[in-house]
Give the backbone structure.
Amino acid sequence: MDYDKLIAPAAAAMRPSGIRKFFDLAAEMPECISLGVGEPDFKTPWAVREAGIESLEHGRTRYTSNAGLKELRAEIARYLDRRMGLKYDPAKEVLVTVGGSEAIDMCIRALVQPGDEVIIPEPCFVCYEPITTLSGGVPVHVACRQEDEFRLRADALKAAITPKTKLLIMPFPNNPTGAVMEQEDLDATLEMYGGKLELAFAEDGTVQMVQGAGAWDGTYEYLEDGGISMNIDADGTALNYTGIFSMVGDQLVLMLLNAGDDEGLNGLYFVQ
């Protein structure tokens, strides 16, 4: 039997990791010092190893809640509040994953539908493209150049956006280059979407734009998952948005996930 014929075309077309190729080659060369994988040069702290040993000795090897241990989620919420001033409900807004790769996989698969385009700045972590492909999405690569310190340029991003664009991955600080998007880089990217907006959300369920391009007003309601749904009249065009909020520094970012047929309002907006 030709087992290769059983493999899904999307899986067969995936590119192998170049970094892992070098890792495997280095493993066969005893005198080689491998810089291919970001492996710490110190052992896992003893307190962590001891906690793992203790859990095994006490038989704590059963399945947990899908969201993770209740006590761990509560501690994660306390840590984010203590270190960053971010408040999350550990029962509804904290999810424990097996490392960052699982979290990235879940985010992409939850958002991307067949045919959706996902913009991926490169160089980047190896998993974005295969996860996008396996989700039925179309990876759109944007090269970040050494002369730009491997930062994403707004004009390069603009050239990659089409009506099918669903998701922009911002892999910064970057793996493997170490590049960081400074505030002016983010501002230049936002200008491409119409600049910074200041939105006023009133308690009566109405929303108005108090600063930005065009004229917005309409209604909104918060969703159970922490997002927001808005019915907007934008310069006479009726639009429905679904969005999610997150923090970038001391600014609140509203990510608009859909915007009807109007391409000019898709994207990320800073909301003061």
